[in-house]
C-alpha cells in the first residue's frame, strides 16, 4: 500500500494565543494534502478524474500533541481506508520524523457541479484510489472510532 506524502509549511498566522497551531488550522492542512493527493495525482494525462468537484461529508480529527510554529514543514501522509460506489474515506497523519501530531479521516463524496448532485466514483478513479488503500484496522495511523488521545 502506498501513501501520498505532502510537505506542508507552517505559517506564523497558524498559531493561536497559546503558542501552538490552532485546531481549526489542521482542517486546512488536511484539505491541502487531500487536494494535492486527489487532483495533482489524478490518473492519466488530460484525465477528468476528480476534476468535477467533491464535497466533504465528514471529518474526524484526533489531536495527539501540540504543534508549535517552526520553519520546517510537517509531512502529511494520506491514504485511503474505504471506497464505496459514491464515497471514499481518506486517512491522514500529520507528523515529522519524531512525532505524530494529528490522526484524521475525511469522507469525501464526488460531486457533479453541473447537475448539482453527488455522483458515483468512476472506474478510473477507483483504480487510482485502490493503489493507496489500506484497511482502517491495518493502518497504523488510521484513527479508530473512539480512540483515546493525549490532551
UniProtKB/TrEMBL annotation:
Domain of life: Bacteria
Name used for this protein in its record: Thioesterase
Organism of this sequence: Streptomyces varsoviensis
Amino acid at each position: 500500500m502506498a501513501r501520498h506524502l505532502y510537505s506542508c509549511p507552517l505559517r506564523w498566522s497558524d498559531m493561536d494565543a497559546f503558542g501552538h497551531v490552532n485546531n481549526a488550522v489542521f482542517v486546512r492542512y488536511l484539505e491541502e494534502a487531500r487536494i494535492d493527493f486527489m487532483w495533482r495525482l489524478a490518473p492519466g494525462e488530460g484525465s477528468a478524474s476528480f476534476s468535477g468537484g467533491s464535497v466533504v461529508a465528514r471529518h474526524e480529527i484526533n489531536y495527539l500533541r501540540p504543534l508549535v510554529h517552526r520553519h520546517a514543514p510537517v509531512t502529511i501522509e494520506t491514504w485511503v481506508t474505504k471506497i464505496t460506489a459514491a464515497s471514499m474515506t481518506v486517512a491522514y497523519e500529520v507528523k515529522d520524523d519524531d512525532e505524530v501530531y494529528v490522526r484524521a479521516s475525511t469522507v469525501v463524496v464526488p460531486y457533479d457541479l453541473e447537475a448539482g448532485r453527488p455522483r458515483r466514483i468512476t472506474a478510473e478513479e477507483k483504480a487510482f484510489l485502490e493503489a493507496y488503500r489500506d484497511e482502517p484496522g491495518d493502518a497504523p495511523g488510521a484513527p479508530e472510532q473512539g480512540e483515546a488521545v493525549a490532551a
